[in-house]
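Notes continue from the previous slide.

Worked example: a multi-chain complex. Inputs as given:
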Amino acid sequence: MKFRNFKMVGYVIYGLGSFDQLDEILAPQRKGDAPMIFFVDEYFKDKPAFLSRIPLQGKDKIVIIDVTHEPKTTQVDKLRDDLKAAFGEVSGIIGIGGGSVMDLAKAVGLMMTNPGSSADYQGWDLVKVRGVYKMGIPTISGTGAEVSRTCVLTGPTRKLGMNSDFTTFDQIMLDPSLTSSVPANQRFYTAMDCFIHCVESLQGTYLNAFSKSYGEKAQELCEEIFLEKKQWDDDADEKLMMASYAGGMSIAYSQVGVAHAVSYGLAYLLGTKHGIGNCIVFDKLEEFYPDGVKKFKAMVKKHNIEIPQHITKGLTDEQFDTMINVSLGMAPLWENALGKDWQQIMTRERLRKLYEQL
Amino acid sequence: MKFRNFKMVGYVIYGLGSFDQLDEILAPQRKGDAPMIFFVDEYFKDKPAFLSRIPLQGKDKIVIIDVTHEPKTTQVDKLRDDLKAAFGEVSGIIGIGGGSVMDLAKAVGLMMTNPGSSADYQGWDLVKVRGVYKMGIPTISGTGAEVSRTCVLTGPTRKLGMNSDFTTFDQIMLDPSLTSSVPANQRFYTAMDCFIHCVESLQGTYLNAFSKSYGEKAQELCEEIFLEKKQWDDDADEKLMMASYAGGMSIAYSQVGVAHAVSYGLAYLLGTKHGIGNCIVFDKLEEFYPDGVKKFKAMVKKHNIEIPQHITKGLTDEQFDTMINVSLGMAPLWENALGKDWQQIMTRERLRKLYEQL
């Protein structure tokens, strides 16, 4: 297809305190006594006040999700096997947390009905059967995972999402009050995932009015929150949640660019997490995104954020080569950023110099 | 529910020329030899070049829709009866046109599976059964009907939509090239439906960050197109289509205001169409929306639009009373615009004076 036919999430509820409506939203989705399974970010493990607000019924279960590492296909398969062994069938999977928890909720929701290993479905449109009911409740803003049709997984041979129309959530709940206790550093890195995404897509060569309108709004909200606001407040949580949503929607007809392509190399070799990895790289990209990087540096300064430096110091030539190979493998990102002739522009030597600066 | 759980359209395809993908999008929705029915605005009746682009297969049928008057429940029921008599079942209804055609496509799509008359379902959440597959393809921008969960119908006792989650389209196709031949006056009135909606909702007392972000973007796009652009071009068609979509999305958590409340009275008594009716009223609302009306007047001037004047001249007291009764019946609109005490602010006398100015 020339233009992508974009699958939307089924339902959106937005509002400060809308989490209290979870029970009534889930009620019509319950199938007999098959339980609802709540995947909850380990951040909430020791927060009984929050956990007690999850409306458990019958055999419903809370599964605390370890997010030390980004989601793996083995982790997805094990979660699925455990749920199958314990319950046979489930009514649905509700992911409450950051991007990793949401991606796991999507992946396990799909694997409850699709046979084999999740690694079999890493790619585009390989999932053939609808999963169980899936809901995403972000507790940190910026990833856009709430509206995407993918769930990024590290598999035996590659890091790649299960991209399909079945992957998109049936329901998302956007309650900005859930994000109010996120530590400032983590909040910043994740918000910058959205900001950097917008800069890259708006300056890219792939773009149309649909994605542009979403991307511009998301970027404008990020700038208002991080450059103009005097202090963090409910309004900031509300706007950042909308920025994340709009940034996610903008991906429909756009693509990311240099920061993402370079940071995938860091993630692969060093396990650097997505949000902070993008910040580490973007900080050095003045020549590609002069206006965006200037604003980024102003935000970093205003919010007293420490961007890690010298993380590639002491790496071997072989290690640099690994990162370069991974990064140059992301052809669509480079083409979006630099045009058809990107291979002439971003040579291995130039990319090596860039990695050395990080 | 405190916060509305907003049903999204199933799929969105956006792009200049995306209409050429209609055949492949419909293919998986065909059920045996049951036809796809294309409701086409009478504007295209004598445009064979356009009609021949509709990908007819088997028993598929084009039904030219008379849009002289706004949609009626009797019209919906008759279209449904005719289709049932001719085909028994249909695979889907595709509405190609303005807001009236889209509303008819939604209504007939629902009535193919729901018993009785469409008048039985005017209200909120009265539709209990999913309709057939429904798709909306706007050929004029501004109504927002492409994303709404209603279809406004004039019935035996009232003008009211079939508001339900089943009403929302399964698919929308946003191809700005389809709007490029709309006459400038009609385009302006319909675009102002979007602009006025945004002014009313952004200045209203009901609003949250979700609707605000969509409403701001839609208003900004309208201002860019109608105040800044030197001449109409593809970019204007693209942006106006996005403004309409964003304006429609913003209704999720907002409400319209004075112009809509007053123009419903005109529509009821005089049959004034929605787009032009809103313009006639908004033109006189400086005291309620000073900034918005100032911009509106600048757009009117720049585009040489003639806003009808003195349309209520010579009406009887009884006729004024009818309009006033209809208008004051729209309590949520007045409360959104003027707050809880709206009845003290907008007295019958004041509203009569306002109607006399039109």
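Summary box: Chain B touches chain A through 41 residues (CB under 8 Å). The first strand of chain B starts at residue 5 and ends at 7.
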